[in-house]
């Protein structure tokens, strides 16, 4: 796909193209078209002072309070900073008819089932980059425990949750409504994110994260999420094999090898109920900058995908994981497979939870499609995106740009303008 070929939800909704302005280069302070993603949010004051529920009041340094489920649920009307523009709130009428891919045959080595699975994946990734999987082999008890520990964490008092507070410039830790990074269009949610990778010494990095931020009381939580991430990585690598098959790549292990030593991110999402859900979004419209996302959602519903110029609801399916392609994989497929544009709505009465595993390559690995995809699909313009590293795209979305439906084309423009030596169009 060409740089600006993506159909945007706004162009569908209001008839003009979306986010085509080039981002401000990191070292270009004169450019103001893209405010830095880390622009400090102004301090909020919700009705002067707010009880924290722990015998203390917060007088205006409301960011941390605004970050809490406690405050979000108490508000009778939605604070301005949570209100999204109309064009982002256009309602989904129809359900997405995404394929449900049963992985069990492929995992057993059945060639026919493998081809069937690869075909379904191909169709959906060419169209919108989204499908669901069953027969994945993940123990349902592990999924249940992951939810139990998610509940345990988000029900903690704010002061406890803030012990794991996300620090500026990092992408792990506890964050409420991302109010530490942004000051408008805030998502109606709290998140807890942590990194997952497998170091040479096999150190359990997730367990370490929980013990070091929240103390030994969270050892069991750390163990559960360590296991959960290991299970997710296994599923993600299996899907990577199917991706290679579905793209007709001779070396079926190509992507699997590429991601083997990767550095992933796990995020627990907690969406409190909202008294005016029609004005807010739990997660705004965006494509994941990452490579492959494996998401488990509870049965409440709220996830939506943009396909055929419309937002479409995704029906939660018991026992299934949702899978979507992210920007980095779109680049790895030379633009052939679509990075999935999605968002999440919130509910008036019910809380909603999801567990999201984002698979990425090792941070310094060069993201470049296999030669076969370059020569077979694009004729005169052999490369759709220049070489980049996951670390560069991650920095772009942490420091210069808020992920949306045009992150990849804008990142590409930024990369080409700020680092011309990086171009490798062969
Ligand atoms: O909770 C969901 O359904 C979507 C979550 C999501 O898009 C994200 O965490 O980036």
Write a concise keyword list for the protein shown above.
binds 2-oxoglutaric acid, Jelly Rolls, eight-stranded mixed sheet, 32% helix, 426 residues, alpha+beta, 14 helices
Describe what this molecule looks like in 3D.
- The chain is of the alpha+beta class.
- It has a single domain, classed as B-lactam Antibiotic, Isopenicillin N Synthase, Chain (Jelly Rolls, Sandwich).
- The strands form 4 sheets. The protein has an 8-stranded mixed sheet.
- A hairpin with a 2-residue loop joins strand 11 and strand 12.
- Helix 8 runs antiparallel to helix 9.
- The chain is globular.
- The N terminus and C terminus are likely disordered.
- Bound molecules: 2-oxoglutaric acid.
- The site of 2-oxoglutaric acid has 11 residues, from strand 8, strand 10, strand 14 and strand 15.
- GO terms for molecular function: gibberellin 20-oxidase activity; metal ion binding.
């Amino acid at each position: 796909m060409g740089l600006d070929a993506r159909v945007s939800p706004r162009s569908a909704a209001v008839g003009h193209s979306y986010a085509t302005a080039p981002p401000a280069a990191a070292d270009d302070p004169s450019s103001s078209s893209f405010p830095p993603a880390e622009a400090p949010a102004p301090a909020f004051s919700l009705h002067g002072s707010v009880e924290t529920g722990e015998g203390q009041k917060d007088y205006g340094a409301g960011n941390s309070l605004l970050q809490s489920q406690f405050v979000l649920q108490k508000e009778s009307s939605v604070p301005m900073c949570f209100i999204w523009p109309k064009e982002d709130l256009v309602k989904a009428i129809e359900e997405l008819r995404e394929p449900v891919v049963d992985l069990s045959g492929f995992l057993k080595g059945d060639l026919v089932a493998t081809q069937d699975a690869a075909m379904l994946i191909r169709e959906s990734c060419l169209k919108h980059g989204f499908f669901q999987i069953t027969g994945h082999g993940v123990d349902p008890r592990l999924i249940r425990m992951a939810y139990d520990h998610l509940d345990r964490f988000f029900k903690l008092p704010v002061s406890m949750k803030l012990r794991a507070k996300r620090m500026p410039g990092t992408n792990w830790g506890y964050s409420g409504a991302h109010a530490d990074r942004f000051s408008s269009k805030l998502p109606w949610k709290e998140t807890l994110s942590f990194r997952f990778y497998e170091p040479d010494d096999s150190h359990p990095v997730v367990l370490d994260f929980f013990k070091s931020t929240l103390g030994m009381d969270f050892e069991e939580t750390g163990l559960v999420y360590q296991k959960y991430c290991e299970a997710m990585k296994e599923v993600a690598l299996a899907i990577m094999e199917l991706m290679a098959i579905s793209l007709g790549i001779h070396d079926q292990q190509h992507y699997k090898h590429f991601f083997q030593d990767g550095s992933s991110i796990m995020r627990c999402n907690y969406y409190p109920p909202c008294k005016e859900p029609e004005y807010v979004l739990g997660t705004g419209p965006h494509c994941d900058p990452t490579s492959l996302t494996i998401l488990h959602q509870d049965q409440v519903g709220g996830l939506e995908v943009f396909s055929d110029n419309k937002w479409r609801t995704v029906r939660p399916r018991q026992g299934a994981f949702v899978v979507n392609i992210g920007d980095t994989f779109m680049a790895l497929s030379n633009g052939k497979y679509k990075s999935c544009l999605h968002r999440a709505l919130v509910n008036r009465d019910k809380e909603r939870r999801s567990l999201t595993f984002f698979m990425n390559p090792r941070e310094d690995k060069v993201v470049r499609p296999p030669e076969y995809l370059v020569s077979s699909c694009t004729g005169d313009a052999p490369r759709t995106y220049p070489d980049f590293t996951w670390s560069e795209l991650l920095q772009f979305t942490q420091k210069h740009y808020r992920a949306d439906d045009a992150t990849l084309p804008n990142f590409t423009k930024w990369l080409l303008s700020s680092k011309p030596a990086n171009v490798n169009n062969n």
